[in-house]
Amino acid sequence: KNTALNMSLSSCKSFAKFMSINVVSKTCLTVIRSKPAGIACATAAASAYPYLCPKAHASGKRGRSNAENIKRALVFWRHIGPIVVHYRFTQVWMNMNESPPEVRKRTWEKLHGIHAPTGLSVILKLRGLYVKIGQVLSARADFMPLQYVNCFMTLQDSVPPWPTKEAENIVREELQMSQGLNFDDVFESFGEALGSASIGQVHRAVLKPQYSNIGGYSGGRNVAIKVMHAGVEDRFLNDFKVFRWLCRVALPGWEPILLELQKQMMTEFDYKNEAESLKTIRLNMARSPYTDKIRIPEPATSLCSKNMLVMEMLEGKKLAVAIEDRLSRILNGNKDLARKVLKTKQQALFRGDDSGRRKEKKTLFHEINQIVGDETNIRATQKIIKTLQLISLAKYTRDRLSLLLDVHGHQIFLDGCFNGDPHPGNILELDCGRLGLIDYGQVRRLGKRDRLALSGVVAALGKDGTPQSEIADSMREFGFESRDNNDEIIAKNAELYFGSDAARIKLGYATPQMYLQYLNGIDPIIHVPDAAVFVARTSFLFRGMGSLLQQQLCTAKSWSKMAELALKEECTPAQEPYRLGL
Fold first, then answer.
1. Domains in the chain, CATH or no CATH each
2. With contact defined as beta carbons under 8 Å apart, do 334 and 378 qualify?
3. Phi, psi of 453 (to 5 degrees)
4. In angstroms, rounded to a whole number, what is the distance separating the alpha carbons of residues 5 and 24?
5. DSSP secondary structure letters along 496-548
6. pLDDT tens, 485-499?
7. Between the CA of residue 300 and those of 9, 319, 431, what are the distances in Å?
8. Percent of the chain, pLDDT > 70?
9. Alpha helices, DSSP H, located in 53-139
């Protein structure tokens, strides 16, 4: 206890040694959850900060003072340090006592319930990078414990915004400095924030008539303005350093992925780049078969600057909310029941036991009755009507997911230019019936060599019965390397990265991270090509999105025809419907 309370480590090395301690007792578990333990972790982080963030420690003049960066690191470790230690000590304690699986499960569930709200609180307090990571994790219902997914879901569109006046002042300054324009001459109105995220927030505005077609813009007078938060780039740089250290301590194997994420995300701090990406994606999609099924906002490039993006306003709601609303209407307007049904289905998919419904020939109608617990809640005379409505809703959901997968498959394999961040908050059900795809700050481009090599991997994965040696060869061609060149393990990595979670679930691993550790224990991957990281992230996001929308996906099967077309160097996809790997 005295060791924990008086801990003042002189370097991150000694703190990491503390985190790796392999002796635990019930007294220790009590201490690490206490306030003094949090102070101790913060003290350790303070003493280690020059080692963690040497550039920030030396200069500290990139929009935020050195003191501000240190304060953020202290706040992070004050709250997160005890959580990491609590999980570590609990794991060691259960291993020492050889706790049975049911005890481990109950213990982990309890810990997740305790710490998920704290994680959300820290994210909302610090914002910056932590909001972005929280958004990604909230879309991975098959990756993260559901307690964290449910807590972090609010980050999709409910992050508290900065004051409207502050955003308006940034817009005024940007217009004056970059275009020499007066705010009151350009905008008829500037509204409250529609949503806030990690880097900036979006406001509704109305252009004055004389600026409604500036520079060839044709998106209309109603616009959305994305405004970058002040000092956010500097915060991200230092937050990445702190989070990278967390990966070394508590999330082994995540650091290479985080480095690639950092490299890509640091390109987001110039909204002129996003405006150009929007133009490119819009042009590509206009030449695709999906031009009348989706909409991508048109940027008013003549009004855009580094810290401000003006674009067409798309009217609609999030796709997940639209599906919940449809189910609620079927259930006589009972939104609480709709959420309960969707959450229960999500949990079944998370556990990997949803396939049992098909074997037992259960219908969604029967599942709803089981959840409600009273068959009379839905009258027998309404049973046929509601069953048909539920079937229609299931088809609607599958069709929407199929369209999303086809669109992103086209972007990846045929265009070589795709959105690397298609989380649920970026997909809208528009009032016109189309899907609206927004937020192209993380557009990733693939060179021809990488695009065709990736196509070879996905085409092999998408065919039933493809030998593991063939899949492994395509992975090596793409640039993957393993220590022992084990075909079976390389092929299983391919399935995890670009296919589905079926193998992981079958073997009983709760998360992809645990399954990856198992695979690396046999034959570790020693090189992952950069091009693979964001495509794999897109695959993971879609699988998580499928879980949130009550569908299990195999992205390789969904994308296999696109990949085959890319290998044949075709310019457009076939007009027939593509297989959806459900």
1. 2-156 (no CATH), 164-196+199-230+270-313 (3.30.200)
2. no
3. -65, -45
4. 16
5. HHHT-SHHHHHHT-SSHHHHHHHHHHHS-EEE--HHHHHHHHHHHHHHHHHHH
6. 999 999 999 999 999
7. 53, 26, 22
8. 76
9. 54-58, 66-96, 101-126, 129-138
Structure tokens at 496: 């995890």
Nearest to 441 by CA among 204, 197, 271: 271
**Residues whose CB is less than 8 angstroms from the CB of residue 362 and which lie 6 or more positions away in sequence, other chains included:** none
Would strands 481-482 and 435-437 be described as parallel, antiparallel, or unpaired? Answer: unpaired
Instruction: Give dist(CA 427, CA 320) in Å, integer.
Output: 9
In three state form, how does the secondary structure of 139-171 look?
Answer: CCCCCCCHHHHHHHHHHHCCCCCCCHHHHHHHH
Tokens of 343: 């959450």
369 vs 49: CA distance, rounded Å: 55
Strand pairing of 222-228 and 200-207?
antiparallel
pLDDT tens by residue, 244-256 = 888 877 776 677 6
Q: What is the DSSP string of 392-434?
A: HHHHHHHHHHHHHHHHHHIIIIIISEEES---GGGEEEETTSS
How many helices and strands, by DSSP H and E, does the chain display? 26, 12
